[in-house]
# Entry
Amino acid sequence: MLLLALGACGHARPPEPSAVVRSEVARAEQAEKARQHDVARTHYQRAVAEAKDSPSIAFARREYAETLISWGEVAEAIAQLEGAVAAQPNDAAAWHDLGILRHNQGDDLRAVDALEHARKASPKDPRPRVALAALRWKRGDRAGATAEYRELLELDLPDRLREKVKWALAELAKPRR
# Structure
């Protein structure tokens, strides 16, 4: 459905990662499934090294980052995601993941920045908005959280999420204790 909508608007399909990069990532994923982590790492690193164009760089680094997260190598995952968004600044998923990881590392200012990039890159995706609203609330920015939650209500949300957003707005409207 999305591809049809893009085609109808006259947008060109985004360039695909190179075949070499896709192949190395596929090999890495196969090795990972077989729990051959060293082999997987080698293929991910080859994919990153072989990536010469923006789509290939972003793809290789984003895929490697996902696996690094599962291995508990958060600092390196952040570095890979930073490389992905440098290659493709409108990669909302990479910005979102970068924001979540930065928050988990205690770097909330940079987390907010990454989540704002994700929101701008994909304004109809509720995920970065939910994360940004929750982070603003956690940091004591009740006005910012309220504004973000209100904007969320303008999106097409699943009923359960819509109810959670309404709950959050009601909580934020209560006087502070």
Notes: Residues 90-177 form a domain with the Serine Threonine Protein Phosphatase 5, Tetratricopeptide repeat fold (CATH 1.25.40.10). The longest helix spans residues 54-70.
